[in-house]
């Protein structure tokens, strides 16, 4: 979620008033804003997407709730020590959180372990351990529409009789100390992005948020006028018409068997009725195609922790496979491929298959990704129910990612096309008619230059390096992962360095290369990549032959509040994942909206950005998905590229020989060995085209006017990538609700009788 103060002031239309008031108190608002901690309750794009969605849902007047866990410790703080990443706990609640309100009156029990008893009256889950879920509510204000929605985060609490009711009578002190075991559930965020770690505590977290949330939803449903009806049997018939639940990846997949358990075991609905309601309630968004990221929980673990849910999953699977077998008799391999249960050394539950079978809609997050989901990853399921699979291209909120972080540009745009674009970003196309307006071109360039100077001052303060603000700011910020290919950027840096040294007199377009992002603490290769970047920076930044032509900075502790500083100052945005691996990306959209040009592969939303702006207005390079597939068929041989490309050979040899690690020449052996022998993401295959494309970038940067015109064409084409558009599509195609851009009257104005009516005349 990042910080809340400035976002709240902007959405309430209070920023100028607050700035003035604080100034009159002799304080500086910006200084005040810097004191607030980021709420870092997610890992990367997926968590930030949810935050943008909350802003858009409130702005569109949707009655929507965001549910999650109130982690005591969020994503770790990253320190760089001697070039290595070191993790520190993110004690973000240390000074309290003024935006949250505990709601103990809505506390709910969540059950774990125990056993299942079957009788004539049905199944009973008994002898369980209980953990209480305490909700904390954070307001989510819409933009200037007097709407405030709620984000409800659950915190784990031990019941007061925890460990005191059973065999534990003797040791009261130990029993109270053991309360921590229950409360550990909401202690800390698992810091993996795009990687599955099958730990018991993580499964507990996933079920905890699901069980508390579903009870909350059902309590609200029963209390509403829609829930009350005479016949008990049909009490839940209207449930899918009143409730839509969107599963953000498979992490809340246990919601499907949990809702079935509530309907069948507690509310005593017949299975088929319960299953129909469940399917119509859930929809699933897939966020990655990397196999190591797909959740596959061991059956033994689920059986121990959630015995009844395992039985329900088996029953769902049995009925699912019976259906497949009836359509495809004797196709046992299809049954194996489509089963929710994977046989093998350890039996596992494929959570993505559970989500697909238990949902009425499945979507990817960019056109190319949704195609891959349909034709490759889940092709058997798409063949069965093609109408279930959709695309919903991701978006970003223009409130945080333009108004808040780049007020200079936002104001410049408003001067040209009015202020309405903030709620309807498609209006940015009106900027096309100013593409040849010399004054506008100069003003856009001036705003960018001011942002760069401001960020350069920040870098000098934090990193004690002198930055040339007229150099090209070449920025690569995102989680560190092999598929995102920070290594390819690193090889380009080394190549630029070698070119400067080979011919110091030759014209070189000065660059400040900024790389930032966190590596999962257990991801060895990602941590080596960080060390390598810092080792290269050490050499480059201290070589007198290079001077101010090339500087390399590793940005420590990349997070939302730092993104808000670096993105508006960026000239070149690096979006260089291997084609077919980045589901969408959203950083790419933030840079586009803030006047950076993109160098990127045809992957994720880059494809649609090129479609909107024209491919000639992005720097597109490298293999397409088809080329990657072709190369896989042929067999990728890294050695071939190394032998054929002298500049690549030289860069790799320098890493290998210890040129960047003279005290430990073998330091980067693992990295080099990976690049030659098991590089799934084919860095060498795209290196040549990447370097050539970077030369085109430098050429254009020399022509400041032509560069800025291309920037304007990009901003004018960024309208599609508002999360408002994304949410309207979810609302229309999946949730079947109508967004309203009606502004609710403020509480201090009496409501007009006419405004208080819905079209059919009943009270709103």
UniProtKB/TrEMBL annotation:
Residues 738-764 are annotated as: Disordered. SUPFAM superfamilies: UDP-Glycosyltransferase/glycogen phosphorylase (SSF53756). The keyword Iron does not apply. It catalyses: [(1->4)-alpha-D-glucosyl](n) + phosphate = [(1->4)-alpha-D-glucosyl](n-1) + alpha-D-glucose 1-phosphate. Gene3D superfamilies: Glycogen Phosphorylase B (3.40.50.2000). The keyword Phosphoprotein applies. GO terms for molecular function: glycogen phosphorylase activity; pyridoxal phosphate binding. Its EC number is 2.4.1.1. It is an enzyme of class 2 (transferase). Belongs to the glycogen phosphorylase family. Homodimer; enzymatically active. Interacts with PPP1R3B; recruits the phosphatase PP1 which dephosphorylates and inactivates PYGL/glycogen phosphorylase. This is Alpha-1,4 glucan phosphorylase. The lineage of its organism: Eukaryota, Metazoa, Chordata, Craniata, Vertebrata.
């Amino acid at each position: 979620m990042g910080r809340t103060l400035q976002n709240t002031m902007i959405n309430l239309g209070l920023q100028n008033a607050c700035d003035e008031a604080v100034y009159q108190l002799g304080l500086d608002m910006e200084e005040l804003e810097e004191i607030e901690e980021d709420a870092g309750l997610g890992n990367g794009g997926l968590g930030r997407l949810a935050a943008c969605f909350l802003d858009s849902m409130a702005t569109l007047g949707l009655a929507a709730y965001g549910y999650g866990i109130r982690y005591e410790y969020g994503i770790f703080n990253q320190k760089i020590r001697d070039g290595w990443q070191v993790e520190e706990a993110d004690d973000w609640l240390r000074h309290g959180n003024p935006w949250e309100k505990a709601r103990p009156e809505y506390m709910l029990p969540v059950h774990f372990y125990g056993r299942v008893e079957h009788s004539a009256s049905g199944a009973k889950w008994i002898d369980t351990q209980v953990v209480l879920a305490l909700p904390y509510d954070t307001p989510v204000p819409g933009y200037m529409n007097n709407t405030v929605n709620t984000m409800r985060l659950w915190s784990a609490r031990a019941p007061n009789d925890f460990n005191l009711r059973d065999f534990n009578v003797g040791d009261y002190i130990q029993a109270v100390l053991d309360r921590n075991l229950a409360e550990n559930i909401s202690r800390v965020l698992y810091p993996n992005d795009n990687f599955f770690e099958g730990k018991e505590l993580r499964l507990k977290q996933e079920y905890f948020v699901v069980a508390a949330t579903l009870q909350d939803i059902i309590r609200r449903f029963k209390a509403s006028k829609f829930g009350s009806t005479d016949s008990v049997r049909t009490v839940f018939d209207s449930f899918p018409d009143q409730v839509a639940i969107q599963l953000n990846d498979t992490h809340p997949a246990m919601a499907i068997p949990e809702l079935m358990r509530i309907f069948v075991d507690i509310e005593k609905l017949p299975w088929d009725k319960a299953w129909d309601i469940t399917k119509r309630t859930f929809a699933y968004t897939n966020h990655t195609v990397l196999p190591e990221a797909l959740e596959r929980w061991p059956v033994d673990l689920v059986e121990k922790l959630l015995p009844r849910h395992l039985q329900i999953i088996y029953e769902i699977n049995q009925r699912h496979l019976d259906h497949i077998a009836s359509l495809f008799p004797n196709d046992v391999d299809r049954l194996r491929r489509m089963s929710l249960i994977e046989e093998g050394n350890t039996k596992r539950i494929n959570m993505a298959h559970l989500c697909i079978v238990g949902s009425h809609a499945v979507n990817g997050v960019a056109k190319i990704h949704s195609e891959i989901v349909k034709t490759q990853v889940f092709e058997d399921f798409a063949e069965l129910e093609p109408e279930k699979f959709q695309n919903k291209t991701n978006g970003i909120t223009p409130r945080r990612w333009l108004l808040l972080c780049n007020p200079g540009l936002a104001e410049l745009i408003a001067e040209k096309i009015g202020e309405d674009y903030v709620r309807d970003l498609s209006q940015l196309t009106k900027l096309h008619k100013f593409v040849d307006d010399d004054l506008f071109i100069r003003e856009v360039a001036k705003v960018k230059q001011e942002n760069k100077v401001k960020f350069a001052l920040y870098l000098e303060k934090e990193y004690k390096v002198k930055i040339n603000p007229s150099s090209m700011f070449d920025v690569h910020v995102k989680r560190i992962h092999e598929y995102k290919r920070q290594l390819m950027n690193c090889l380009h840096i080394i190549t630029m360095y070698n070119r400067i040294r080979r011919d110091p007199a030759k014209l070189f377009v000065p660059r400040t290369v900024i790389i930032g992002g966190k590596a999962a603490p257990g991801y060895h290769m990602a941590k080596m990549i960080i060390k390598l970047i810092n080792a290269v920076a050490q050499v480059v930044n201290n070589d007198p032959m290079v001077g101010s032509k090339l500087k390399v900075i590793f940005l420590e502790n990349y997070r939302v509040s730092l993104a808000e500083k670096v993105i508006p100052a960026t000239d070149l945005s690096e979006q260089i994942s291997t084609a077919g691996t980045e589901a969408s990306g959203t950083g790419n959209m933030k840079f586009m909206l803030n006047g950076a040009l993109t160098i990127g592969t045809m992957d994720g939303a880059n494809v649609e950005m090129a479609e909107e702006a024209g491919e000639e207005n992005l720097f597109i390079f490298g293999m397409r998905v088809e080329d990657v597939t072709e190369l896989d068929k042929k067999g990728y041989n890294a050695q071939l590229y190394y032998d054929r490309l002298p500049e690549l050979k030289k860069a790799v040899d320098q890493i290998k020989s210890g040129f960047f690690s003279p005290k430990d020449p073998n330091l980067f052996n693992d990295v080099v060995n990976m690049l030659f022998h098991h590089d799934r993401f084919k860095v060498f295959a795209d290196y040549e085209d990447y370097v050539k494309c970077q030369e085109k970038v430098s050429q254009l940067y020399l022509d400041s006017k032509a560069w800025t015109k291309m920037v304007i064409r990009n901003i004018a084409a960024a309208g599609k990538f508002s999360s408002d558009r994304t949410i309207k599509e979810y609302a229309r195609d999946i949730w079947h609700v109508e967004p309203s851009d009606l502004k609710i009257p403020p509480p201090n104005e009496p409501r007009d009788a006419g405004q208080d009516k819905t079209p059919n005349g009943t009270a709103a």
